[in-house]
Input
Amino acid sequence: MPSMSRDLRDAPYGNYICHMFQGGSWADRSPLHEAAFQGRLLSLKTMIAQGFNVNIVTIDRVSALHEACLGGHVACAKVLLEHGARVNAVTVDGITPLFNACRSGSTTCVNTLLEFGARPQLENHFVSPIHEAVKEGHRECMEILIANGVDMDQEDPQLGTPLYVSCMNQRTDCVKKLLELGASVDLGKQLDTPLHAAARKSSAEIVELLTDYGASLKCRNSECRCALDLAVPNSSVERALLLREGPPRLAQLCRLCIRKWLGRSCFYVVHKLHLPERLEDFLLFR
Output
């Protein structure tokens, strides 16, 4: 059995994820769990026909649906759901099948779960699917959740906002899409902003994206440090931040003002203003 790294075990929800990767090591895992995790659809159907309970759970309350979604096996997940599997089943760690689908990056599993009534915006004591999607860099899963009403500025007490998590994990595609859709550029993890995270991770491209969308260089975290204080001396991140220390250009101020006025609808309604193509592209950072 492969050993789990210390970083994985110490991460949020790490114990659960370690169990997932250990597969058959659980004494209380049923054959139904195994078939779902491995994507063995015929075996799964056979066991259900023989009377296996689709909602049987392990001691940690992991269901076969959890397993199917972690493996990204949409056909198995759909069969389980059609036979009454609980779509919002929660493990002892607060993990749902939707969380697992976002971890695996399976958009088909995410859509199927939502069709069967999965709650995309979960209560505080459950873990957040959108945070897991952006952490893993699964932008399409993130977009599906947002389209289904998930608050893109939801701050997880352990992880921060989805934008902050994207910056911490250097998921540039997720950062760009969140900003396009109107995520609050300065909301991160308590006083730590996404720009702090990007500077800490030495990601010049993300620093430039955030500052283009109006991130404040003056915000100070709980240690009273701004993003520039966290940049490696003489690095591309430091240079990018120094270039933006002065007053922004008038065109940039106008763009940010218009986007603020339009709010989160900006990405969808700019084309309805019948502006010249160059101006429309400018407002949408194209």
Residues 250-286 form a domain with the Elongin C; Chain C, domain 1 fold (CATH 1.10.750). Residues 30 and 231 are 50 Å apart (CA to CA).
